[in-house]
Write a structure and sequence with these properties.
This protein is an all-beta fold. Helices cover 0% and strands 51% of the residues.
Amino acid sequence: VQLQASGGGLVQAGGSLRLSCVVSGLPFSNYAVAWVRQAPGKEREFISHISFSGEVTFYSDSVKGRFTISRDNAKNMVYLNMNNLKSEDTAVYYCAAGRTGWFQKAYDYWGQGTLVTVSS
């Protein structure tokens, strides 16, 4: 099983980025996917989740209204559109997959992460 996150980079505050995660090695349409981030010196933060069908999504309060998660099961892809970025969004962003719900957060498979840096 592999999860490959990409799309990170340097952006100014107020700008936008789109992260992508490609998943292989598992029946993708049977797995929920989450985006998780970790800022330097801080604990890991679960920021968004999308159900296996894409019909149900969740967001942390810190990104609600600014970030949008989506998936394309035909392409084994999950996306995170990030708008109105703030300096506090600077972190390494990981995608994770599992047969789990947002509240359980029991993701079995994790990608390697992509760095997002927001300059103020």
